[in-house]
TrEMBL record:
Its EC number is 3.2.1.23. Residues 393-601 form the Beta-galactosidase trimerisation domain. It comes from Streptacidiphilus alkalitolerans. This is Beta-galactosidase. It is an enzyme of class 3 (hydrolase).
C-alpha cells in the first residue's frame, strides 16, 4: 500500500515566502533541492495577505508560489489561515475577540485571537477556507490540506456562555439533571434558570468540578465543530486529504481521540521540553500517541524544531546528530515523514529566534548540513512509505476526561499530575525496549498483552466494564493509585476506592494518605514510595509488597505499617495488579518488569542494550528495524540481520553495531516460515 505521499516520505517544513523577496525565493529553490525537500506547508499565517479586506481575495502571489514550488518538485500542504485573523477583522468584530477567564477581552497583536463560538469568526473562517479550496482544490502541487493551526484559544465571552448552555442542555436534558450531575447542593450553587449557568470564569475560590469538566468537554467539541466545518468546505471542493496539526503540549484542551476520528490522517507538532535522552523519550511519547489517536490511520509529524528544546525562559540548542535521530524517532513510530517549523528562520516577527532548517547564518552551517543529511537519509527510506508499526503488545490508557477531571482544584495532593504520571509509565516501558500504544479505556483492549492505567482518576461505567472484560478475558492490567475513583460526572464512587475496580483488583481502599513533600514510605520489598499512599485492605488480592511505615519519614510503625502497598489479583483468565504509591524509579522498573514478564511481553530486539530505541515497521512480508542509539557507548545487537538502508550495506554476520548517537534502519530478511 502506498503511503500518504506515494513512494516517498515527506521532508520539509512551514514555508513563508511572503516574508522574503524574489532573490531569497531563488535561493530557497536551490537549497530545497539540495536538502531534498519535497513538501512545504504554505499559508498558515497568510490571512491578512490573502483577504486584505472582507471578501476581497488576492491570490496572485499564492498562485505564483504554488507554481514555483511545483516546478521545483516540492509538494504543498496548503493551510487555511484561520488561526490568525487580520487586523481588519478585529475592528469589524470586536465581539469575536476572546475573553479570558478574568473577563479581559483580548485584541489583535499576537495570533490565535478569535472566539470559536463567535458566528462572525466562524463565517469568516469558512469563507476563506472555501475560497482557497475553490481556487486550489485541484492544484497539482497541493497534496494535503492543513486546516487552521493548533486549536488552542479558549474564550469566556457571552457567546461562549450561550453555546455552553446549549451544549449542556443537549448533554443533561433539564436543569435538574445538571444540578444533580454537578452536585450544586454543595455551596448553594443550585441553578433555577439556564441564564444563571455560565462558563467557569474567575471566581472567589475553587470552581465547581463538574462545571470545569463539562466546560473542557464543551470546548473540545466546539473546536471539533469548527474543524469539521472547514474540513467539509474543503472536501466539497478538493479530493486531497484534510487534517489539522494537533499540538501535544503540557496543557489539555482537546480530546485527541475525537479529533483522530475526524481527520483523514493525524498531524502533530512536537517540541520536546528537555534535552538529551529525555527529549528522545518525549519524541517516543508524542509519536506513540499520534499513531494511536488515529486508530490505524496514517500520521505525519507536521512540525518540530530543527535545533530547539524549549524550557521555561530558555531555548536550549540540540546536539549534533539530533536532527536525523529525532526525525527517525517519529518515522520509526509510523510518521510518513518529518516536517519542521520552519524552512527559513524569520528575520522579523515574534518568532525570529525560533530555529529553522535554514538558520539566520545561512546554509554554511552545521544545522543546514544536518538538514541536508536528514533529507538524504529520508530519500533512502522511500520503500517504508505505507508500512505500519508492528502491533505493540502494551497499551497505556489515555483519556482526556481523566486529565480534565484531575486538573480540577481541591484534590488531596497537587502532585497528582496526569501528564507526568502517564509520561512516566510510558518512559518506563520505553526504557525496557518495548513499543507502546495508547488506548482509550472504552476501546476493545483484548489485542494487548498488558495494559497500564497510570492515572485514570475518572473512568466511565463503560470504561470500567471494558477493563473488567479485558482482565477477565486473560489480560494483565496494572492500575495505579487514585484511579477509578470518580465517574463520568466527576462524582466519587462511594463505598471504598477505587470504586470502579474494587472487584477486579480484589481490594478496598479505605483512606487516601497523601505524603508530604519529602516524605518517603518504605516498602517491604526494599522499594519506596513518595507523593501518595493508601490504607488498603486485600479482599482476594495477593500482597506483593506492604508498607513498613507510611507516616512522615516512612518509619515502621506508621498508620500503614504492615498494610498492602502493591497487590495482584487473579481475575477470570487474567489479572489486576495495583500500585498504591508513586514508586521510586528502580522499584517501578522492577514492578513493570514483573508485569511485562507475566504478560509475556518481550523487547523489540532480544537482549536490547539500555539506551537503545528499537522499533519495527512492517508491510506484508517485509519488515524494517529502526535502531536509535541514545546511549554513550556503541550498541551491539548480535541477532540483527539484513540490509542497512542509510549506508546501503549488509549488516555483518556478527550483528549490528550502532555508534553512540547513531541510527540504523535495517530491512530484515524475509522469513521463510
Ligand atoms: C507551533 C506553531 C508554529 C510555531 C511553532 C514554534 O507549533 O504551530 O506556528 O509557532 O509552534 O513556536
Amino acid at each position: 500500500m502506498p503511503g500518504l505521499f506515494g513512494e516517498s516520505l515527506a521532508f520539509g517544513g512551514d514555508y513563508n515566502p511572503e516574508q522574503w523577496d524574489p532573490a531569497v525565493w531563488q535561493e530557497d529553490d536551490t537549497l530545497m533541492r539540495r536538502a531534498g525537500v519535497n513538501l512545504a506547508t504554505v499559508g498558515v499565517f497568510s490571512w491578512a495577505l490573502l483577504e486584505p479586506e472582507p471578501g476581497r481575495y488576492e491570490f496572485a502571489w499564492l498562485d505564483d508560489q504554488l507554481d514555483r514550488l511545483h516546478a521545483n518538485g516540492v509538494r504543498v500542504d496548503l493551510a487555511t489561515p484561520t488561526a490568525s485573523p487580520p487586523p481588519w477583522f478585529t475592528l469589524a468584530h470586536p465581539e469575536a475577540m476572546p475573553v479570558t477567564a478574568d473577563g479581559v477581552r483580548l485584541t489583535h497583536g499576537s495570533r490565535d485571537t478569535y472566539c470559536l463560538a463567535a458566528p462572525a469568526y466562524r463565517r469568516a473562517a469558512v469563507g476563506i477556507a472555501t475560497a482557497l479550496a475553490e481556487r486550489y482544490g485541484a492544484h497539482p502541487a497541493v497534496v494535503m490540506w492543513h486546516v487552521h493551526n493548533e486549536y488552542a484559544t479558549i474564550c469566556h465571552c457571552e457567546q461562549s456562555a450561550a453555546a455552553f448552555r446549549r451544549w449542556l442542555r443537549a448533554r443533561h436534558g433539564g436543569l435538574d439533571a445538571l444540578n444533580w450531575a454537578w452536585g450544586t447542593a454543595f455551596w448553594s450553587q443550585r441553578y433555577t434558570a439556564w441564564e444563571q449557568v455560565g462558563t467557569p470564569r474567575a471566581t472567589q475560590w475553587h470552581h465547581n468540578p463538574g462545571q470545569t469538566l463539562d466546560f473542557s468537554r464543551f470546548w473540545s467539541d466546539l473546536a471539533l465543530d469548527a474543524y469539521r466545518e472547514q474540513r467539509d468546505a474543503v472536501r466539497a471542493r478538493s479530493d486531497r486529504p484534510v487534517t489539522t496539526n494537533l499540538m501535544l503540549p503540557g496543557y489539555q484542551n482537546l480530546d485527541l481521540w475525537a479529533f483522530g476520528r475526524e481527520v483523514d490522517f493525524v498531524g502533530i507538532d512536537h517540541y520536546p521540553d528537555a534535552p538529551g535522552a529525555d527529549s528522545h523519550a518525549d519524541i517516543a511519547f508524542g509519536a506513540d500517541r499520534a499513531r494511536s489517536f488515529g486508530g490505524g490511520k496514517p500520521w505525519l509529524l507536521i512540525e518540530q524544531g530543527s535545533n530547539t528544546v524549549y524550557r521555561p525562559g530558555l531555548t536550549l540548542p540540540r546536539e549534533p546528530g539530533d536532527i536525523l535521530r529525532s526525525s527517525l524517532g517519529h518515522i520509526a513510530r509510523g510518521s510518513d515523514g518529518a516536517l519542521f517549523f520552519q524552512w527559513r528562520q524569520s528575520r522579523a516577527g515574534a518568532e525570529m529566534w525560533h530555529s529553522a532548517m535554514v538558520p539566520h547564518a545561512g546554509p554554511d552551517t552545521r544545522i543546514f548540513r544536518e538538514v541536508e543529511q536528514t533529507g538524504a537519509a529520508l530519500a533512502r527510506l522511500g520503500e517504508l512509505a505505507g508500512s505500519t508499526v508492528s502491533a505493540p503488545q502494551v497499551a497505556v490508557l489515555w483519556d482526556a476526561d481523566a486529565w480534565w477531571a484531575l486538573t480540577a482544584a481541591g484534590k488531596p495532593s497537587a502532585e497528582l499530575d496526569y501528564l507526568g504520571t502517564v509520561r512516566r509509565a510510558h518512559r518506563m516501558v520505553w526504557d525496557a525496549g518495548v513499543t507502546v500504544a495508547f488506548a482509550h479505556p472504552e476501546d476493545d483492549l483484548s489485542g494487548y498483552r498488558a495494559v497500564l492505567a497510570p492515572s485514570l482518576y475518572l473512568v466511565s461505567d463503560v470504561g470500567a466494564d471494558s477493563l473488567r472484560r479485558y482482565a477477565e478475558g486473560g489480560g494483565t492490567l496494572l492500575v495505579q493509585y487514585f484511579s477509578g475513583v470518580v465517574d463520568s460526572r466527576h462524582q466519587v464512587r462511594t463505598g471504598g476506592h477505587p470504586g470502579a475496580f474494587r472487584e477486579l483488583l480484589g481490594l478496598r481502599v479505605e483512606e487516601h494518605r497523601p505524603l508530604a513533600p519529602g516524605a518517603v514510605a518504605e516498602l517491604s520489598d526494599g522499594s519506596s514510595g513518595t507523593v501518595w499512599s493508601e490504607d488498603l485492605r486485600a479482599e482476594g488480592a495477593e500482597v506483593l509488597a506492604s508498607y513498613l511505615g507510611g507516616a512522615v519519614g516512612g518509619k515502621p510503625g506508621g498508620a500503614l505499617a504492615g498494610k498492602p502497598a502493591v497487590t495482584r489479583h487473579r481475575f477470570g483468565a487474567g489479572s489486576g495488579w495495583y500500585l498504591s504509591t508513586r514508586l521510586d524509579d528502580a522499584g517501578y522498573a522492577a514492578l513493570l518488569a514483573r508485569v511485562l514478564a507475566e504478560a509475556g511481553v518481550e523487547p523489540t530486539v532480544p537482549g536490547q542494550p539500555a539506551g537503545v530505541d528499537a522499533v519495527r515497521r512492517h508491510s506484508g512480508s517485509l519488515s524494517w528495524l529502526f535502531v536509535l542509539n541514545h546511549g554513550e557507548t556503541p550498541a551491539r545487537l548480535p541477532t540483527v540481520r539484513g540490509q542497512e538502508l542509510l549506508t546501503g550495506t549488509a549488516v555483518p554476520a556478527g550483528g549490528l553495531t550502532v555508534a553512540p548517537g547513531g541510527v540504523a534502519v535495517v530491512r530484515e530478511p524475509v522469513s521463510s516460515a
